[in-house]
Design a protein that fits this description.
Elements (H helix, E strand, L loop, with lengths): L3 E9 L4 H12 L2 E7 L7 H7 L8 E3 L5 E3 L3 H7 L13 E4 L3 H12 L4 E4 L6 H4 L3 E2 L9 E2 H14 L3 E3 L4 E7 L2 E6 L4 E4 L1 E4 L3 E3 L7 H4 L4 E2 L2 H4 L6 E7 L3 H10 L3 E7 L9 H8 L4 E4 L2 E8 L5 E8 L2 E6 L2 E4 L3 E3 L29 E3 L11 H27 L2
Helix pairs in contact: 1-6, 4-6, 4-11, 9-10
Bound molecules: flavin-adenine dinucleotide.
The site of flavin-adenine dinucleotide has 33 residues, from helix 4, helix 5 and helix 11.
Amino acid sequence: VSDSTEPLVVYGASWCPDCRRAKQFLAAHRVAYRWVDLEEHPEASAEVEARNDGKRIIPTILFPDGGFLAEPTNEELADRIGLVRRAMADEYDVVVVGGGPTGLTAALYGARENQRVLVVERSAPGGQAGVTERLDNYPGFPEGVGGAELAERMTRQVERYNVEILSAVAVESLALDAPMTRVTLSTGDVVSAPVVLVATGSTYRRTGAHGEADLIGAGVHFCATCDGPFYRGSRELVVVGGGNSGLEEGLFLTQFTDHVTVVQAGPELTASALLQEKVRSHPRMSVRTSTTVTAFEAGPTGKLTAVELEHAGARERLECAAAFLFVGLEPNAGFLAGMLELDDRGFIRTDERMRTSVAGIFAAGDVRAGSTKQLASAVGEGAAVALQVRYYLEALADATARP
Ligand SMILES: Cc1cc2nc3c(=O)[nH]c(=O)nc-3n(C[C@H](O)[C@H](O)[C@H](O)COP(=O)(O)OP(=O)(O)OC[C@H]3O[C@@H](n4cnc5c(N)ncnc54)[C@H](O)[C@@H]3O)c2cc1C
């Protein structure tokens, strides 16, 4: 599906994560759409409510043929816009698992060397970078760049070299069939290749506290830049996690709220000394160490109204407009457990040539143990691993050619 100019309409709100996901999915597949923010155009709510039995479900997406989807999954969106979710071949030189910056860069390099490359992406190309509002530290963009725009640019560049990208398709498992690896997809298809690159990135870790899952996006957030402005004028915001991210984002949040409380489970903050000093001396921030969040409480509107904290066996309720979680990243490597060597946090161990513990399977980017979890490094790792893949394929071809 490319260069569609059909007037598709997406109704939503700027703070709604599913709206961002849907918009990114459409943009990544170059489906033109008109965005209607219901907070700026409340009169448009009638369009949404008319289609959802009076409910204001967002995103609601209207198609030119008069049909609509309410809160669609990426799979539903993919089917509705006519994306092909089946691989064109059974065999490739390289299967890249994950279409984030790492996977797309590696695919670009491989395809430019005439390798047959398949990228399998469970969501939309662009990865975490693609769902980021704005990236300010990626070289080459002096004014910063929107994540969706960068993802779209990367995808277009990769497609120029005829890389096949399957969107809204997950890799469910890998099985070694030396020298090939068989890759089972969520569509039920199986493809194989002598090289599989795992570039599946990572996902924000949650606290696991009661009520958390239901309130994600409704007062429980992972990105202050994305969701902080929604809480302008609030009295209290809670930051969970006392590492660099927690303190940096907590300081950022002070511009929107009267007070920020940082909650840290351990006895000490783990952020840099400079950040700790900034936070401790901030007149509108306080720090609670050896304290855990035991529950997220919803009010009558279904949004977060308070967190329950536990310190030294005593529980306390802290009213807040939102809680921002910065408690680490979960590597997307669960589907590889038992097959590849992982570190104690579940990230994939590689050697200096980005080879995993299984021949023919490489790992790079945020999912790799020791990677720096930055966009520029992800792109760098994509390029670096592509060269290692080339050497591996050349050695394999030499070995096969030898009598
Ligand atoms: C909100 C936010 C803001 C950020 N801001 C910045 C910033 O300002 N500057 C900066 O340098 N970095 C930033 N980052 C980090 C940066 O985005 C990441 O370091 C980078 O995207 C990592 O790239 P990656 O390709 O390794 O992984 P990801 O971007 O995580 O991509 C991995 C892809 O793999 C897919 N996937 C996972 N499992 C499977 C599976 N089983 N089958 C198929 N596909 C799968 C995922 O859907 C995903 O698209 C930010 C990240 C976030 C989330």
